[in-house]
Amino acid sequence: MNAANNPIRHFFCALGYFTRIPIPAWVGYLPDDLDRAARYFPLVGVLIGVIAAAVFWLTHWVLPMRVALVLSMIATIWLTGAFHEDGLADAVDGFGGGYTRERMLEIMHDSRIGSFGAIALIAGLLLKLETLAALPVAQLGVALIAAHGFSRLVAVSLLATLDYVRPAGKAKPVATRLAGSGLLLAIVFGVVPLLLLPPLWIGTALLAGIMVRYGVAAYLRKTLGGYTGDTLGMTQQLAELACYLAWCACVLR
């Protein structure tokens, strides 16, 4: 099979781009690899969710539930190099501190974290911990796997309808529109893990994800005219939190 069309290579490219997991040397690099790899981003999310679930279950037997959840969160942050959390902080800093499109993009490009970004990170991590702690222990492993995969589908779906707004940046390699069989494959990878959850949880997660996706897309069109790598990270974090909040509502119903 031609290397440029090898789906295994493209999966490994996605894995190498979004995680610290070493990939085989034979994978190499071609200029359009990440364009083709975008469809596998939700599958990478599923793998991250599996690792998060494994850390939780291994530590939950000997440690309090919340401690096990914190260790699980730390594991995913380390595994991804805080890739999405960094995007959340930078995007919130940009939207909170910028009054023009140019100023927003300038702030997002700055590697320093500001007050808005720091508050967003703290609030996001606390909310993630508390919502997960409110879920039934028996469902936590599947919930982590499903949320990590589905939230990345919500983020990557922005590639189907929005344009990349920077001439260069960390999302530039995946700035090609996602469509056709690639988009369908991403949907399969992102939605199938949800089917392991109770029916009500599936419905609320889909509704929450759709609301985040279209709300963020409308806001990005209005403020930036498209997306950046930071806004994709922000979208993933918001979609993941939306899933946990929706499932908490199901539990309390």
Automatic annotation (TrEMBL):
Enzyme class: transferase
Coiled coil: none
Pathway: Cofactor biosynthesis; adenosylcobalamin biosynthesis; adenosylcobalamin from cob(II)yrinate a,c-diamide: step 7/7
Protein name: Adenosylcobinamide-GDP ribazoletransferase
Family: Belongs to the CobS family.
Catalytic activity: alpha-ribazole + adenosylcob(III)inamide-GDP = adenosylcob(III)alamin + GMP + H(+); alpha-ribazole 5'-phosphate + adenosylcob(III)inamide-GDP = adenosylcob(III)alamin 5'-phosphate + GMP + H(+)
Membrane topology field: Multi-pass membrane protein
Cofactor(s) needed: Mg(2+)
Domain of life the protein comes from: Bacteria
EC number: 2.7.8.26
Transmembrane spans: 40-63, 113-135, 141-162, 174-194, 200-220
Keywords: Cell membrane, Cobalamin biosynthesis, Magnesium, Membrane, Transferase, Transmembrane, Transmembrane helix
Function description: Joins adenosylcobinamide-GDP and alpha-ribazole to generate adenosylcobalamin (Ado-cobalamin). Also synthesizes adenosylcobalamin 5'-phosphate from adenosylcobinamide-GDP and alpha-ribazole 5'-phosphate.
InterPro entries (alphabetical): CobS
Localisation: Cell membrane
